Structure formats: structure tokens, C-alpha cells
Amino acid sequence: MTFLVPFDGSYLAEAAVARAAEYGEVLEEDVVALSVVPAEESYAVTKGWYEDGEDEPFSVAYVADKLEDGVTAIAPAATFRYERVDDGMPMAVAQRIGTVAEELRPSVVFLGTDDVGEIAEPVTSVAGGVAARAAYDVHVVRHYAPPSSPSVRLEEGPSLGE
After folding, report:
1. Is residue 22 part of a domain?
2. What's the half-sphere exposure (Cβ side, CA atoms, 13 Å) at 160?
3. Residue among 97, 85, 72 at smallest CA distance from 37
4. Hey, which residues does 109 pair with through a beta bridge?
5. 52 with 42: CB under 8 angstroms?
6. Residue 162 lies in a domain
7. Boundaries of each UspA domain copy (predicted)?
8. Please, which residues have CB within 8 angstroms of residue 107's CB and are 6 or more apart in sequence?
9. Residue 39 falls within a domain, yes or no?
10. pTM here?
11. pLDDT tens per residue, the chain (162 residues)?
12. Domain total in the chain
């Protein structure tokens, strides 16, 4: 099985990668961090992925390399993947994440977001568009401090029917 983490370099996306990596280690699950990068320089500038005047000219691959460095710094064992899209609209990004999720069939998608209300409004939110799919569980990460591994316990307890 796999844990999938949409990653845009934001503080809470970093938290989601950290949380998924910790759970992945304890539960022996692979972690895939996925960045969806629109082919619009202005989008990359707005997100803080690229600055005018950088030594390297703008390209999706250049931005993806920077995002991969961020993932590797947090979770060296995670696999990084990026997808290029033409449209930076939230639903286009969410659709690409959903397409990759259909391919990978993750057991859990870790979403870093502090606005759970956006998940209920998937039209304007990448997180909402990803959470709306019923093919996987969603773990919403709203705080950076993940639990330490010893606190992630796999204790057997009574089933819901008991």
C-alpha cells in the first residue's frame, strides 16, 4: 500500500509529508509526495516556487526539482513525483492529483490544510477536490507537530460491531 501526499511546498504540505513519513515508517507503507506544477511562470512566482531573476530560466522541471529538494529534506525515504498541467485552477490541479491517485491506489491521502471548511467546498479548493473522491481515506493535517512514532500505536481493540 501507499500513502499519497499532495505537495506544494507550503508549511502544511510539509507537515503532511512529515506526518505521512512517520506513519509510513511505523506502518511499513510507502510514501509518495506528488507535486502538480502548472506550466505558468506567474503561478510559480505567486506560489513562491520561482523568482524573477533566478539563475535558471523558468521551467516545470526546474520548479519540480526545487519541490523535490523540499520533500527530501523532510522525508528522505519518500518517493517524489511531479505532474505538469497547463491550467493552475484548483480543480485542474485536484483532477490531476485524482488521476495519479487512481493509478497509485493509495490507502490514505494526507492533506495539509488549515481550512477544513474548504474541503466541504471542493469547487474552489484543491484539498476539497482531492477529498471529495471516495476511493481512499483522507488524513487532514492542520498542525505541523506530528505525533512521535511511539504514540502511533497499533493496538487491537474491539471492532465496531462488538
Report:
1. yes
2. 0
3. 85
4. 4, 138
5. no
6. no
7. 2-142
8. 1, 2, 3, 29, 136, 137
9. yes
10. 0.79
11. 899 999 999 999 999 999 999 999 999 999 999 999 999 999 999 999 999 888 899 999 999 999 999 999 999 999 999 999 998 888 888 889 989 999 999 999 998 876 554 444 444 455 455 555 556 677 788 777 655 545 454 444 444 444
12. 1
Rg (CA), the chain: 16
**Structural domain of residue 20, as residue ranges?**
2-146
Residue 87 Cα distances to 76, 98, 131, angstroms: 30, 15, 20
3-state SS, the chain, equals CEEEEECCCCHHHHHHHHHHHHHHHHHCCEEEEEEEEECCHHHHHHHCCCCCCCCCCCCHHHHHHHHHHHHHHHCCCCEEEEEEECCCCHHHHHHHHHHHHHHHCCCEEEEECCCHHHHCCHHHCHHHHHHCCCCCEEEEECCCCCCCHHHCCCCCCCCCCC
- Would you say residue 160 lies in a domain? no
